[in-house]
Amino acid sequence: MSLSTVFVVGLRGFPNVQGGIEKHCSELYPRIVRDSDINVVVLCRANHQPPDIREYRGVVMRPLWSPSSPGIEAFLHTFLGVLYAIVKRPDLLHIHAIGPGIFTLFARMFGLKVVFTHHGFDYKREKWGRVARAILQIGERLALKFSNAAIAVSKVAGAELETKYRRKVEVIRNGVEIYDGRVRRKILSQLGLSEQKYVLSVSRIVEEKRQLDIVDAFLGAATHDTKLVIVGEGGGGKYYDQVCAKIKDRIDIVAPGVIYGDDLLCLYQNCAMFVHASSLEGNPIVVLEAMSFGLHLLVSDIDAHREIELDSADYFPLGDIEVLSTRLSERLARGDFKLDTKKQERIQTEFNWDLVSQRTLNVYNAILDKK
Prior knowledge:
Number of helices: 14
Oligomer: single chain
Radius of gyration: 21 Å
Structural class: alpha/beta
Strand order of the largest sheet: 3-4-2-1-5-6-7-8
Order of helices and strands: EHEEEHEHEHEHEHEHEHEHEHEHEHHH
Largest sheet: 8 strands, mixed
Helix content: 40-55%
Number of strands: 14
């Protein structure tokens, strides 16, 4: 049987490229290649993709030019990616996110079969103005109306999209790689950290992730010589500058930028607890990762976090800095940070990348079998 080819567009690239979609794709597509007779070609952005990586765990990485401007980068790169796919004629084109989804109709007009994954309602992000929000909503509408198959990464989003667009949406939630054993702890000494003496936050430093809420809550809490570690990059912008100004010259707050690989695993493994204050998520991989390490959690009570079904004490009201500060003080004073094995067991059974791969393959095969 001849191999089928799937082109992928809508992401920056991988590995070691920050972003939830990037992490999703870096775990999914190597498994697709491993478990099937499908070739995967990722049309990544040349200004983000590591220049020495043109193949990753069996996945072909094909960089295409894209501008550096955040406002138009995804739009123009996806347009070029779809043009490239029209010329090369893959068996399937998989488009990720509602911004790139605006080109679904264009791809279908030229005879391409399209799978679309909805990673979140991006038009609800605080940074977008009226015009950008309208374009993103159009992208969602075109992707849901014209794709051959649609996937949502959360039950909440899947139900809303099915009601809104009156079509079947397959819910395939994100997974987590389970890591066994310990990793080297050199990063702790490099950052001046001690085991279980820091609170960890991991995400891009942008408005909807609300790092300022975490900083303000931490500064108002009784921290008992515990530090706050904020991992992530912001790529500039007003909000990023505000966060940097807030934590400048503080010895109790560490912001090392983006961290990958064993160093990030080490920060997860050795922190006292994990905090995520986001106002907008699809199916948050960083929270699932924290669960996989059995960490104690404090997360905002948005629908995407509620869907994960944590203990009620793990949630705090979105934007309520006073409550978050009080919860931090209480948990740090208690000082009991032993692993939550119940969370780890749930991750293994409910949020498994091998399961994500198999369910995505089922979507692909249902379309490929109709050729």
